[in-house]
Amino acid sequence: MATSGTRTTEEVFADLFGGVVQDPFPLYDELRETGDGVHYSSLLQSHFVTRYADVRRIATDFRTFSSDLFDVTPAGMHDAGDAEHRRFAEIAGRLFMFADPPVHTRIRSTFRAAFTPEAVERWRPAVLDATTALLDEFEPGTEVDLMPRLAADVPVAVIASILGVPREAWGHFRTWSFAYASTFDPMVQGARRDEAIRTSLALFDFLADLAAQRRARPAGDLISTIVHTRTDDGDVLGEVELIAQLALLLVAGNETTTNLIGNGSTLLLDNPGARAEITADPALLPDAIEEMLRIDPPLHLTIRLLTKDATVGGQRLPAGSLVSPCIAAANRDPRVFPDAGRFDLHRGENGKHLAFLHGIHFCVGAALARLEGQVVFEEMLRRHPGFHAGTEPAVRRTLNSVSRGWEKRPVVL
Ligand code: HEM
Fold first, then answer.
1. In a mutational test of the pocket of ligand 1, which residue from 158, 363, 364 has the highest number of ligand atoms less than 8 Å from its CB?
2. Which PANTHER family match (predicted)?
3. Which of 114, 199, 255, 283 could be joined to 179 by an S-S link, Cβ 3.0–4.6 Å?
């Protein structure tokens, strides 16, 4: 189909997924406002869904739109003839994010109590420690790139600390976590994929050892809680299931929270009026974070598999089709958010955005991610209220169409 310009939607997708554009939002607008906002992409081999009502409905109707699709993710497309690949897929394939009820409900029930907003507050000191340790390195008046020096490190340090990973293992843990996350990146192929899988297996072994230690001697950390928590069915997670979920906490929480910090810093730089308001009244920070998550969400795309024929937008799609709900396009749908491209602290629509999705797969770590955002921005604005764009250009990461953020975000403190 042709868009409102003269290009076909496939040409728009080629730009969007080909690493060509820095700013994908005008293309999302174009796709959302063309036809019924649902377009097949031969690159994704999936129907790209852009309107808020359609994305929310797909997330709600988990019986029609299944998450049981690990095998079609890059991490799931392994070499069955290779023993390491097989072992990797056997563990990683148990992620409850890629499961439907009843398996999903049973595993997710072990996380419920540990991740409520009230429970997450107990981790505030750990988040503050991780943040201050990094910010203490920043000299006022110097230029720093926030991405490697702050945004990438806070989430790993926080999750390592709350899981109970001993501090001397944090360096390895960071490397292992990034390697595991990279197995979900379609660009990581061949020898790089073999290496990422081997490193992920080291992470799985490390988590298995730690879990065994905490089973024998609980230590008050998150692993101790999870190994002893009973599921809704009254059992505890099996060994492989457990390792898969612990590793999931890393991949699901690291790059996303990194992007929240990078994207949010950029929005503060680009919106000096809003930033002055927040600096004067830090009580506005929770609203600011919701608006950051709406307007520039860390995770742009997700995926579902149709279990039966269904209508999406105005189109009848057969069972077995893939759909790719685009959170970032939905979050700027003008049918729901007036003047959707404007960063507005007083929108009063908190919780309506889909950055953490909706329904049974709503992000388990949402309260923790919000807490990390609050602590990081509060500390940053308190210590460096005048931070401004650096002399080096900021660069968006363009080759990942699923999670979009900054490669470089230099600032002068
Ligand atoms: C700003 C940061 C974050 C964003 C934007 C985000 C976004 C999301 C989204 C959109 C989903 C749903 C995916 C789908 O079903 O297709 C999700 C699921 C999930 N997230 Fe997050 N996430 C963030 C941080 C975290 C953190 C810090 C953790 C844990 C430490 C975490 C753990 C999870 C888990 C375990 C799931 C699977 C839930 C399920 O399938 O029931 N996330 N997240």
1. 363
2. P450, PUTATIVE (EUROFUNG)-RELATED
3. 199
